[in-house]
């Protein structure tokens, strides 16, 4: 009988011990610090324009350093697609971040940026131009769906001339 009670005691204690060994749940992400619009202007627009600028007369990448800058911009754009997918602090941002189309556009932006990165790594201007076209298409479709009036929040991209 004592052995039976001891077995029952272990049956009750083991789940408690297992539960104590579990790590506390961690938050999924660092909360956004700025609005999606600020992310778009400060990250997405900046990195995308660096990629699109290669299409201007006399601005095609020629040196290893030029191609490295293109690759860096593509990496920045790919990473910023993840940032905008999380959302931001703007009034509409939490709702947008939950919408399937917002996630779809974020993924398509990331994919276009990764194509640009691959093109830069291969020093392939034609592939870069094709990736740039995909990025433009995604940006235009997203703007049509979510941000038809520009600028919002009075945040505008300060284009730099090379």
Task: Report what the structure shows.
By secondary structure, this protein is mainly alpha-helical. It has a domain at 35-146: Four Helix Bundle (Hemerythrin (Met), subunit A). It has 6 helices and no strands. It has helices at residues 2-21, 36-52, 64-86, 93-98, 100-121, 125-146. α2 (36-52) packs antiparallel against α3, α3 (64-86) runs antiparallel to α5 and α5 runs antiparallel to α6. It is elongated and about 45 Å long. 25% of the residues are buried. Residues 1-21 have low confidence and may be disordered.
Map the helices and strands:
Blueprint lengths: L1 H20 L14 H17 L11 H23 L6 H6 L1 H22 L3 H22 L16
Number of strands: 0
Going by helix content, strand content and strand pairing, the class is mainly alpha
Order of helices and strands: HHHHHH
What is the molecular shape? elongated
Average of the residue pLDDT scores:
83
Query: Radius of gyration, Cα only, in angstroms?
Result: 24 Å
Share in helix: 55-70%
Low-confidence stretches: 1-21
Largest sheet: none
CATH topology (level 3) name of one domain? Four Helix Bundle (Hemerythrin (Met), subunit A)
- Under the CATH scheme, the architecture of one domain is Up-down Bundle
* Number of helices, where a helix is a run of at least 4 consecutive DSSP H or I residues: 6
Instruction: Please report which band the strand proportion falls in: under 5%, 5-15%, 15-25%, 25-35%, 35-45% or over 45%.
Output: under 5%
What is the CATH C level class of one domain, in words? Mainly Alpha
């Amino acid at each position: 009988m004592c052995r039976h009670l001891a077995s029952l005691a272990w049956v009750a204690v083991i789940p408690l011990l297992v539960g104590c060994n579990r790590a506390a749940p961690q938050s999924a992400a660092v909360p956004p610090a700025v609005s999606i619009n600020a992310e778009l202007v400060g990250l997405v627009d900046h990195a995308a324009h660096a990629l699109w600028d290669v299409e201007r007369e006399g601005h095609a990448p020629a040196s290893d350093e030029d191609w490295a800058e293109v690759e860096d911009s593509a990496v920045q754009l790919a990473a910023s697609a993840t940032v905008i997918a999380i959302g931001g602090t703007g009034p509409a941002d939490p709702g947008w971040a939950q919408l399937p189309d917002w996630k779809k556009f974020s993924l398509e932006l990331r994919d276009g940026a990764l194509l640009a990165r691959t093109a830069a790594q291969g020093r392939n201007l034609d592939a870069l131009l094709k990736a740039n076209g995909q990025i433009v298409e995604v940006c235009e479709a997203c703007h049509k769906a979510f941000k038809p009036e520009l600028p919002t929040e009075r945040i505008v991209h300060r284009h730099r001339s090379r």
